[in-house]
Write a sequence for this structure.
């Protein structure tokens, strides 16, 4: 496991933690039923002095189309399943999707505080109770803190030993029923206001995180590049919404030589950092991870960096990518060396 040293101007230590941070809570203001929100979970401490290595967040009924925000140093698993009822999402009936998000193999020391962000739509919910997200912290092989108790109707959550974090809600405008009718066929109006974020990793709009790359569309216009035995084609990225600091990049690489090569790194003047990532589905679990060892390009074969699979991740983007513009990227290979490519920027939404 790779350990990251984190330097911060302000550290919330266990000794100075106030009562408001004694439990895992959400940093959000009340979310409107029918709106999209970056649910920002605050984890204030570890397990009796032990560092937190895994955070498991169960998603409540009514919170749909969830997408975790990539978190450097952590792997992410997305567990999918059936919803108890159907919901409307942009005119499409949705009956299944992510039901649990797991941030894994990280290292959050006990005397540090951090946040974990999951973006999704509040398709239904009762403002009187909010939406509870049962959460488990795992620390090492035997440490555990459970924030999984959901208050019964009329019960004060403060009376519970391990209250689940609750996302507070307000009714959609003109919806006196507070969102109960937001399932398929009776959806509340969608409010797509900018989502709340956290620090340098601010939430990045309606189509946040890895999962949305599955909907990316190639706009065409990429100029093929040949360097040594490698040929690069079909490169592109996608437009980003305002405040979205993370973007995905894609390209097809063909090795026409007799020896394997390896894509070892990528850089761009338009991003503070570019990482190589992989997204895979294992049954109902979506696994996303950084590829620190690079991507092998076998001799005589073609490797696609594409939506839903291998891809580039652009971090710390100062200005959102705009449709019709381009992104300059340098891809570095073990044998072919550095290759400059220009990625056309397609639409923010896929077809």
């Amino acid at each position: 496991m790779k350990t990251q040293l984190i330097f911060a101007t302000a550290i919330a230590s266990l000794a100075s933690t106030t009562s408001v941070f004694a439990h895992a809570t959400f940093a959000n203001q009340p979310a409107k039923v029918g709106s999209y929100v970056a649910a920002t979970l605050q984890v204030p401490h570890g397990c009796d002095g032990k560092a937190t290595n895994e955070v498991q967040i169960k998603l409540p009924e009514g919170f749909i189309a969830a997408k975790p925000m990539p978190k450097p140093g952590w792997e992410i698993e997305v567990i999918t399943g059936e919803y108890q009822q159907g919901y409307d999402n942009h005119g499409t009936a949705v009956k299944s999707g992510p039901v649990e998000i797991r941030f894994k193999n990280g290292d959050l020391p006990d005397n540090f505080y951090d946040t974990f962000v999951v973006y999704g739509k509040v398709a239904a919910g009762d403002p009187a109770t909010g939406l509870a997200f049962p959460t488990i912290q795992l620390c090492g092989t035997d440490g555990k803190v459970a924030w999984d108790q959901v208050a019964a109707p009329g019960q004060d959550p403060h009376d519970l030993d391990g209250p689940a974090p609750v996302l507070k809600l307000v009714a959609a405008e003109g919806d006196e029923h507070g969102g109960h009718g937001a399932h398929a066929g009776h959806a509340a109006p969608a409010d797509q206001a900018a989502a709340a974020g956290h620090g340098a990793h601010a939430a990045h709009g309606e189509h946040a995180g890895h999962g949305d790359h599955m909907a990316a569309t190639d706009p065409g216009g990429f100029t093929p590049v040949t360097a040594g035995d490698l040929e690069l084609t079909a490169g592109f990225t996608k437009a980003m919404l305002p405040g979205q600091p993370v973007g995905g990049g894609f390209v097809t690489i063909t090795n026409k030589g007799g020896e394997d090569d390896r894509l070892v790194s990528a850089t761009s003047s338009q991003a503070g950092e570019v990482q190589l990532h992989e997204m895979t589905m294992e049954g109902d679990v979506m696994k996303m991870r950084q590829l620190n060892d690079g991507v092998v390009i076998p001799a005589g074969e073609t490797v696609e960096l594409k939506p839903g699979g291998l891809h580039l991740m652009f971090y710390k983007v100062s200005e959102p990518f705009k449709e019709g513009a381009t992104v300059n990227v340098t891809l570095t290979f073990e044998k072919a060396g550095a290759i400059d490519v220009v990625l056309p920027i397609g639409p923010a939404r896929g077809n």
In short: Confidence is low (pLDDT under 50) at residues 1-21, 176-211.
